[in-house]
TrEMBL record:
Nucleus in keyword set: no
Protein family membership: Belongs to the MreC family.
Coiled-coil spans in chain: 63-114
Keyword Coiled coil: yes
NCBIfam families: mreC
Name assigned to this protein: Cell shape-determining protein MreC
GO cellular component, one term: plasma membrane
Keywords carried by this UniProt record: Cell shape, Coiled coil
Rod shape-determining protein MreC beta-barrel core domain location: 123-276
Amino acid sequence: MNENGFLFKRRRGLTLLAALFLSLVILVVDTKSFSINPAQFGYSVLSTFQIGFAGVKNFFRETANSITELKMLKSEYEALREKMEDYQLIQRDLVNLRSENERLRTLLELTEELDYRHIPSRIIAKDPSAYFHSFTINKGSRDGISRDMPVIAYQQGFQGVVGKILETGPFTSRVLPLISANCYVSSRLQNSRFEGLVQGGGGIHHPIIMRYVVKAAREEIQFGDLVETSGLDSIYPPDIFIGRVRSIGSKEWEPDLELSIEPIIDFSRLEYVVVLDIQSPTSGETSK
């Protein structure tokens, strides 16, 4: 079995040797007298070696050419792969740019309905902790922003409270978000009109709390009711959404209800905000 395999693997070489040997015999044997011519025999042997040498030479030349061609093909493949990666990056950037343009277009359309001078801004830095104490926007005092100005945003067709300006620099401002435990907003339930005070829960994963809602309101409050600004704190204009009721709590010895509110704005994916100047109620005017 092994012997047959050995011969099978080398069948081409053995066939070549047999052909060369047969050619040699035909050349050196006189077919008429069956006599061997020494000169012809020497020439035939030399020719056989020349043919073999030429074959070996051609083999190595073709091998070298094949190696060179493979290197060229590999270089072309690498170049094409790099171009493909560049095209994929360009396509990804194009998709991201289109998405950003769509968000900005939506923001522009919605802000045109505002009754106050407004300054669209982009978030450029966030508190990395889950407590989310503040974030920074790319507009500052040179753009007309000052401390305590309200900040809103648009998500899924809703205009919602984001927070207020905590401090300003010439080109940037820091925002105190609604979800911070240090943020308070005068609020009311949209349907029943009962009022209260919303306080941040202290982090992005904590619900905000609406306090000081009279117990008489319990029968009129439903899960999912919208909570909005009341406009009684001189910072936030009225009728801006804050969130939805998720639970109602009360204690026997306390005179008020405590509502757990889910913010209307998802702060984990907030990118653009709008700063309002409620002291300048000029409809349609936007600071760019």
